[in-house]
Amino acid sequence: MTATPLTGRARPDRSPHSFAEWQRLGGYDALRRALKELSPDDLVSLVEASGLRGRGGAGFLTGTKWKLMRKAAAAAGEGPRYLCVNGDEMEPGSFKDRLLLEALPHQLIEGAMLAAYAIGATEVILLVRDAYRAGAAALNRAIVEIESAGLLGSNILGSGFSLTMRVHGSAGRYIVGEETALISAIEGDRPVPRARPPYPAQSGLWGRPTIVNNVETLSCVPLIVQHGADWFRGLSRTEEGGTKLYGVSGRVNRPMLIEAPMGTTARELIERCGGIRDGRRLRAFQPGGGATAFLEQAELDVPMDFGHLKKAGSALGTGALIVLDETSCPVASIARHARFYARESCGLCTPCRDGLPWVSKLLDQLEAGQGTAATLELLQMHVDLASPSGRSFCDLMTGAMTPVRSGLERFADVFAAHLAGRCPVGRA
Amino acid sequence: MTLKAETIQAIRTAAHHHGGAKAAMLEALKLVQAAEGWVSDAHLAEAAATLGVTTAELDSLATFYSHIFRSPVGEMVILLCDGLSCYLNGADDVRDAVQQKLGIRFGETTPDGKFTLLNVCCIGGCDRAPAALLGPDRKLVGPLSADQLDQLIEDAR
């Protein structure tokens, strides 16, 4: 068995396989087997036992999420249930789902079909960000192919299971990836988050029980059905099952995607990228994308999974490892993130809509050497007010403040130097 | 100028495909933009009428989504990523070079109507940083140097 079961079948040029080619590689074997041999409950238990956790950043056990939805759906009474696939990958530094969408559409579709079978969904909607038009096109072609092959529609393979599937192409805006905003987007509302409860599992798309799963999460599911829960757990170095698709970018010699055992360390990932750019020294890294706290040299050997990184004070997030070297200014880097989150606030909640542009402005002043002690105090005030979860409808604001908070803690000396009007680092 | 017959037809098909007029509003905007380059007031109203939704409803989406253009754009829209990974790999230099080459800043279109330059958030091309998306297909290009972008612009001309 290959060490990269998730992405091993992707072609180097990322051209997707035809249905016939994919079947020759074992495609849809898991679906055929599941429809014949497994009940939806069996499938939920299998995925729960595999230790698969949501790869969109939350890290919740996928099987447990499905189980809770089945319970909520039973309470919601007769009617349709939905599976939404979150292909809105837009967290700064994240580029893993692009590969899965472009090169392995059939793997994702099979995973989505299995998930739909497990939760009793009759329709799958795959939401894909506009920057991934090639991925959306690959999915659309694959859907047409399997429709003609009789794998979509009513009574699939004589199992009694019926399913339709379609792609919803988005058009920019980070907030669409928030699960309740994603549901609003598919319904045609202005995509702003909704209050919870009710949770999507109780009342989601069109007011019906809904699961939103990430692209990478679902792409793992056919492998689990095919090879078993123990095999999937065995791929990992930690308690959390599977391999993980890590995206390494920033100041490394060869930025790239790396599928590696869950729990691989940042040190190993950076080494596989040829080390820090031009042999320079590491300054810091964000292990899971823009909204995760900075870590430094001392944390290079922390196993990169949800549990270990949380314990280390950061998060696995999307597994997007962003590397800063000694020439990268943390103040400038944090200012870049702040601009992103300020621009991408949906504007629904006042603290986020008005607070984040203020934070961004303060950081721009500091970066330019025009800040004073009062600027820093104001910035800290925003961190204290906006960091706690629950002060806005969704977690965008909390996430946006994470690099600011951890940056102020870790790089106090660099912030101080900027106050004195000089950047001790120089431009990256 | 009214919408082309095939655009109207495609909007109707989208309403069917997306399970209703409201759910198809964004797709309708994208269809208008694909045919016309941008979404004018007149075309917005026509698309709304085709779907049977109000102009205000449709505009509330058009003004929310950053890839729907409510003002005219050039033949080629260049979406230059200003995310952190691109910044760490010299995106500012590429930005300066392309702005100088085209003589425009972010949000502007060249006087000959050929190019529009926009800054966008992380485009999921961090392994090819600094990166950009070109044209209506959102083709990913990178890693970009000032020279390469120069060449891409020359080719597009």
Task: Give a structural overview.
- The complex is a heterodimer of chains A (428) and B (157).
- With 428 residues, chain A is α/β, with parallel strands linked by helices.
- Chain A has helices spanning 19-24, 29-37, 40-50, 62-76, 96-103, 105-119, 133-148, 179-187, 215-227, 229-235, 266-272, 306-311, 330-344, 350-367, 373-386, 396-410, 412-419; strands spanning 82-87, 123-128, 164-169, 210-214, 243-250, 256-261, 282-286, 320-325.
- Helices cover 45% and strands 11% of the residues of chain A.
- In chain A, the strands form two sheets. A four-stranded parallel sheet of chain A has the order 3-2-1-4, with helices on both faces. A four-stranded mixed sheet of chain A has the order 6-5-8-7, with helices on one face.
- Chain A is globular.
- Chain A starts with 18 loop residues before the first helix and ends in a 9-residue tail after the last helix.
- With 157 residues, chain B is of the alpha+beta class.
- In chain B, strands 2-3-1-4-5 form a five-stranded mixed sheet, with helices on one face.
- In chain B, a hairpin with a 4-residue loop joins strand 4 and strand 5 (139-141).
- Classes of the chains: A alpha/beta (428), B alpha+beta (157).
User: Which percent bin holds the helix content of chain B?
Assistant: 40-55%
Q: Biggest β-sheet of chain B: count, sense, barrel? A: 5 strands, mixed
Task: Give the DSSP E fraction of chain B (strand runs of 2 or more residues).
Answer: 5-15%
Tell me the strand percentage band of chain A.
5-15%
Question: Which class do the helix and strand fractions of chain B yield?
Answer: alpha+beta
Provide a count of the helices of chain A.
Answer: 17
Q: Which residue ranges of chain B are poorly predicted, with pLDDT under 50 across at least 5 consecutive positions?
A: none
Task: Please list the strands of the largest sheet of chain A in the order they lie side by side.
Answer: 3-2-1-4
Stretches of chain A where pLDDT falls below 50 for ≥5 residues? Answer: none
> Could you report the average pLDDT of chain A, rounded to the nearest whole number?
96
